Amino acid sequence: MTDVTAHGEDAGQSALPAWSLPKDAVDRIALPWQWPERVTRDWALGGSSGKGARVCILDSGVEAGHPLVGDLESAVVISIGENDEVVAEEDTEGDVSGHGTACAGIVRTLAPECSISSVRVLGSTFTGSGAILLGGLKYAVEQGFDVINMSLSTTKKPFASILHELADSAYFKRTVLVASAHNMPVESYPWRFSSVISVGSHEEDDPLAFFANPNPPVEFFGRGVNVEVPWLGGRSLKVSGNSFATPHLSAICALILAKHPELTPFQLKSVLYLTATNVGGGK
Amino acid sequence: MTEKSDLRAAVAAGVGGSEESFRGLLAAIVEVARSIFGAKASSILLLDEETEELVFEAVVGEGEDSLLGTRFPAGKGIAGWVLATQTPLVIEDVQQDPRFAKDVAENTGYVPSGLMAAPLMHEERALGVLSVLDRPEQSLFSLKEMELLGLFAHQASIAVDLLLKARKANRVLEQSGGDLEVVSRLAAVVDGLEEDRRAAGLKLLNDLAATLGA
After folding, report:
1. Is residue A36 part of a domain?
2. B17 to B45, B55, B175: CA distances (angstroms)
3. CA B22 to CA B162: how far, in whole Å?
4. Which residues pair with A176 in a beta bridge?
5. What are the beta bridge partners of residue A244?
6. Interface of A with B (CB under 8 A)
7. SS3 A114
8. Number of folded domains in chain A?
9. What ipTM was estimated for this complex?
10. A196: domain range?
11. pLDDT, tens digit, for every residue of A221-269?
């Protein structure tokens, strides 16, 4: 056998190995091997402005043109059609709570040249919000964003398995899902899945300080207390919560991916670990 | 609702406590929330699933005379975000947000400058939002307070769940046109008897159940 049979969609376009790796195919999956002796912050994101990285804010919408957010690559609002299909239409309403604008502002501040898109999953109806959240995530994964910021979660168990599949599908498509951990005694998703980067809050003032947690399921802590953010009407507010720690990590991911677009979510998570403030990366 | 669950609801309404006693519990919760955070006001908003609105069910401090019972759409604003995402958050300088002002201050003229809000969760369901308004300006918010807010909201959500169950039980009783009211009364009476009489009452009920073939 001289060729590798492609199995399934992950096999790639040109008969790359899928579920098995014959001896003569080893050379064809050569990967970058010139890793630095020590992965430092400077190697990871030094000099990066986020240019080239595409970040999606899956939230309440984003106020386009806010001075602290700037222009958006795209903005859609998600609804569920008559046949349960996901409908994404241009969002003309903008942000329905202010929260999405705040998240976008945090990303813009840390990664000034990254592209930001808004996928609004809140505001149109309350009871359908779970299905819309799933639909919005599915849409965002299909768009091939580099980073999806999910400062939200759901406690609905029936949604957990679908979310799990979506999170895995994002992982293999090289879309990094950055999800807020819940800070109340409830079970919620998708932050508990190992295919996502889950984020809780720390109290430091440095927006680039982030900590690796040796006791998951929360894997990283980002700045989440007394953060100044843009809000509706071109204004700014001071806010706290894991949902604001999450876009800090999303922005850091965008900075790293802009500089090292070849990194897979698995490698990105390793780089985050190696450059975390408590792993010496902050120095 | 099945007839069997109607009967259960009737028993629950008989022994489970009145709407008033649960309202008292909610009022006590917001009073304690205001006190532990040294805040000016606190409120509990519950979701009305039929109308998709949030309703002020308990208010203490500024706005307590006028806000009770007022409603606004559940899909929007800060409380709407907290409810839909089931995630707590803290915001300072809230008067800068025109939509927040519209949510809460429309009827009162009271515009808070800070807000802590946590979802009231019972199992998988978001029942409403606990808010604490205007913490002392000089104190910077910390993660300890966030944790306290979460724990407190968890406790409050248990009380809210009881209130909602009591309401459901009473609604079922009303809908049954009074047929089941006797079951509710019987349950309340037996539940309130002293020990020896209660045992006799239960024996009587068991005999009745046996006679009816239950």
Report:
1. no
2. 21, 22, 19
3. 8
4. A147
5. none
6. 60, 96-99, 122-127, 129, 151-157, 180, 182-186, 188, 201-203, 224-226, 231-233, 235-244
7. coil
8. 1
9. 0.77
10. 48-275
11. 999 999 999 988 777 888 999 999 999 999 999 999 999 999 999 999 9
Contact B107, B67 (CB under 8 A): yes
> Taking the model in full, what pTM does it have?
0.82
- Is residue A7, in this structure, part of any structural domain at all? no
A280 is a domain residue: no
CA B188, CA B165: separation in Å to the nearest integer? 16
Do residues A132 and A272 lie in contact, with contact meaning Cβ atoms separated by under 8 Å? no
Q: Measured in whole angstroms, how far is the alpha carbon of residue A2 from the centre of its chain?
A: 39
Question: How many of the other CB atoms lie within 10 Å of CB of B186?
Answer: 17
CATH number at residue A132: 3.40.50.200
Tell me the chain B residues in contact with residue A126 when contact means C-beta distances shorter than 8 Å: 47, 52, 74-75, 80, 83-84
Q: Is residue A74 part of a domain?
A: yes
Residue type, A184: M
- Per-10-residue mean pLDDT of chain B, 214 residues long, equals 58 65 87 91 92 92 86 83 86 60 49 84 88 78 86 89 81 69 74 81 84 78
